Amino acid sequence: MSDKKNYSNPKYFTNRELSWIDFNDRVLEESRDKGNPLLERLKFLGITQSNLDEFFMVRVASLAKLAAVKYPQPDASGLTAEEQLRAVNVRAHEMLIKQYTTLNRSLIPAVQQIGVHVKRATNLTAEQFQFIKSYFHDELYPVLTPMADDSSRPFPFIANDALNLAIQLTPSDGGDRLYATLQIPDVFPRVVRLPGEENAFILIEEIIKTFVGQLFVNYNVKESVVFRVIRDMDLDVAEEDTSDLLKEVQQQLKLREHGKVIRLEVENTISKKLLKRLNKELGTPDFAVYETSGPVDLTFLGKLTSQIINHDDLKYSKFTAYQPKELDSNHDIFAAIRSHDWLMQHPYNKFDSVVEFIRQAANDPDTLAIKMTLYRVSGDSPIIRYLGRAAQNGKQVTVLVEVKARFDEQNNVHWAKQLEKMGCHVIYGLIGLKTHCKLSLVVRREQGGIRRYMHMGTGNYNDVTAHFYTDMGLFTVNNDMGIDATNIFNMLSGYSKPPYFHLLHISPDGIRDFISDKLAQAGDEAKKGTPVTVRMKMNSLSDQKMIEALYKASHCGVHIHLIVRGICCLKTGIPDVSDNITVHSIVGRFLEHSRIYSFDIDGQKSVYLSSADLMTRNLNRRVELLFPILQPDLAARVLQIYDTMWQDNVKTRVLQADGSYKHIDRRGLVPLASQTAFVEDATQRVQRAQADAKPTAPTEFQPMLSPENQPNPLNYDDGSESD
Known about the structure:
With 723 residues, this protein is of the alpha/beta class. InterPro entries: PP_kinase, PP_kinase_C_1, PP_kinase_middle, PP_kinase_middle_dom_sf, PPK_C_dom2, PPK_N_dom, PPK_N_dom_sf.
């Protein structure tokens, strides 16, 4: 008998954008959680701001464009673009209140208790006031450029994400009110350390506001308030119409800076008259105006924490990630991979092993070719250097650099040009698709013939973010996977269309079909009474068809465990639809970024890792990779990692039937924070390795990696908007 249920009922879906705001609210909870170190709570609050900024630049900007043309098609939850735009702004205003309540009532009093002060000009000591006066005249004054706003000098262009002053003034000899703007230059640090106290600071805009009258000789400043705008920063590349993708991306980067204003933030001390004028000049609807009860743009909190001295005890304690000695620079990494597959779990395993893989290949006389996909790399990537060295050493080096990686376009264009200069063959992505898979292939000539060595991962080849994104990777010489990898690169660089893949699954289409088939098989087995459990972990779950497939499997009796960090458009607790589905979300010290897909049918377990979330863009419009973990001990290790995360009762929130997320009731339970457990396990492994180690001569070269535990708040939400 066929299943006649309507799984596409809008009541069964949560709106994507509102679900994202729920995620950012969970990040905000971390800033309010007194169980977190105090200075880390400041960082979390700053992260909520950078997350919102990117969300508005891309997602809300898209809604605004659809609403402007009255796009009629509703989303899966039944909301039109206009309805979504309004609802998102309502929720974002609620979040603004929570952000500044957290800052003013909780965090500022707490840091003041430990002697950290962000001062206003009115409560400086005489020494400190003299300092900011000198700083203004000697450093700031020569750079500042006031912009009049009158009939002969129109309202100036306001750059995205730049701090500005809106100023109202009158002539000293009387006359009508006049208006001006002043951009606060970003060439100076926003957080300025004050003399006379160990941890006393002032914001640069406070200094400028104090002395801004000196920029307007013979005028009286009546009002000056800080504001900033967030613009539409989505990159719109008409790929079908361009023969040179690189030039088109570069051109769009210039045009993007002038996108429509999507959000206006301004200090709540602004007068109604000045606010009305700003609204008119910027074309901002009332619902997109956000009045702050504190400093505009809370991302400064991350910079503040980095300058606070003698309080490392109020930050996360540092730890040393574990690296198997067989994969370090003192050993032959290819021999290690030939012996068996290796599973990497970052940041608990060092990313050095991945860098070492490329370094040794670059210098290895038996290496013939290196092929690699790069989606996001760091600003000073050692991998880029070694790829260049490999080309200079006569290896055939092919690198796909995705120049359309959102907000990394400029960095990736730069590296693409550098790689070409160093002799690498560079592919600039594919028309109509983003290449998001994480794949590297080293081809060696060995005694038995040609052998392919591979690394596949769930996260970017970025040595900086690898310190605070949780990701997984696999080293293998599996021949069938190697053939598949070769076919993937031929597909990316040429016109090859392989009829099938042996073990790897590729999007577009392939990953969707594979997971849909596995879920259908699971459902069929569950209907026979076979015990079936599906475990999945991803950043976001928003694809309507995949959610419907999960609903069908649940209806058939499949037990489904989902760990979804961010967006989740699936609803739990719907009778006879999703009552077999449980959703957890983990938000903590590290950004959960790994993707795991596991199917357990009557004890027969298959385990896969992937670069793809179950989002429409990942499944339809990106080149993504899903790969199996075939070595039994490694498959068991992945499931052990998953189970540890599933049992987390400290940083886990559980999705409720009403759409809210609630912490697990820990009464009677031993506290378990999975990320802390993994850190402790890595620490113990390092200690055992050090105890067993014998002194060895230092090697000629040590990979240069960025310091650990230096999170970049702007990338905390990588999986949702930027990824």
